[in-house]
Amino acid sequence: MQKSEEKKPLRPEQEQPRQPGIESEMDPKPVFEKKNVPVGKLMDRVAVITGGDSGIGRAVAVAFASEGADVVIAYFDEHEDAALTQKHVQEYGRKAVLIPGDVTDEKHCAAIVEKAVDTFGRLDIVVNNAAVQYPQKNLEDITAEQLQKTFATNIFSQFYLTKAALPHLREGAAIINTTSVTAYRGSGHLIDYASTKGAIVSFTRSLASTLAEKKIRVNAVAPGPIWTPLIPATFDAEHVESFGSDVPLKRAGEPVEVASSYVFLASDDASYMTGQVLHPNGGEIVNG
User: Fold this and answer.
1) Burial (CB count within 10 angstroms: exposed 0-12, middle 13-18, buried 19+), residue 240
2) Does a structural domain hold residue 235?
3) Given CB 3.0 to 4.6 Å as the disulfide criterion, which of 3, 4, 135, 174 pairs with 189?
4) Maximal CA-CA distance, the chain
5) How far apart are CA 100 and CA 79, in angstroms?
6) What is the DSSP letter of 226?
């Protein structure tokens, strides 16, 4: 009788000490770029991307640049990651402005938009992507401080940045919000995080309704398990090792596999879509 093969880990065990994590310290490094032949879907447009230094945000910034966009990369304090993202954007002949700071501060969000408009003279795309998550086994373990931090980063910042951007957005502009599969299936160990992601879905749909008259489209992307710095900065080494193995495709996705959803929603290809959510999640079935 043959012995069953020992299941190989998807990646080495690893942890990072704090969020949102450092991409350059991950093993393996996330895949954030696909060398396609660009067709200029976003030619000369200007995008602001929060959490744009690494993970999904980096992949989106590079994908936007490959299609002709200049980008403003708002990030917390991961300067090395942000500089590498800027370098890859510039390799496509596009500009990348780096703005470190805390998006939970409404004045900082206003400053991000002001810098974008002062630099490029316009703003066409807003990507609300910054997020944190703090796993807890029980609701009772979620402190008021954690609750406030999670909501301030994940959803309040989206209100702040979008509010600041709206006076500068013209007909045809696009707002894209990063929600999560947890908004639809819940998460027993990420109750506050999943709650913010549910709020983002409602924010997206409500704002889409409000801005339809102005022909400004508002959509969202709900990724499943994606290999980003937030994972080793959030979970213990054992969890990281098998992260993503429970979805139908049996693996975590790479940021590059999500970025195309943002390119689509930002471009004229999605001209008849607003108030919608795309689900690059490895095959999880969700309702809504």
Assistant:
1) buried
2) yes
3) 135
4) 71
5) 8
6) B
- Residue 89: inside a domain: yes
Q: Is there a contact between 248 and 282 (Cβ–Cβ < 8 Å)?
A: yes
In a domain, 127, yes or no: yes
**Would the pTM of this model clear 0.85, i.e. be above it?**
yes
Q: Which of 106, 82, 109 is nearest to 96 (CA)?
A: 82
For 46-100, write each residue's pLDDT tens digit: 999 999 999 999 999 999 999 999 999 999 999 999 999 999 999 999 999 999 9
Confidence of residue 23 (pLDDT cuts 50, 70, 90): confident
How many domains are there within the chain?
Answer: 1
Does 26 reside within a domain?
Answer: no
What whole-number distance in Å separates Cα of residue 226 and Cα of residue 221?
12
92 part of the active site: no
**Which is catalytic among the residues 160, 193, 262, 272?**
193
Residue 88 is part of a domain; what is its CATH number?
Answer: 3.40.50.720
Q: How many CB atoms lie within 10 A of CB 39?
A: 11
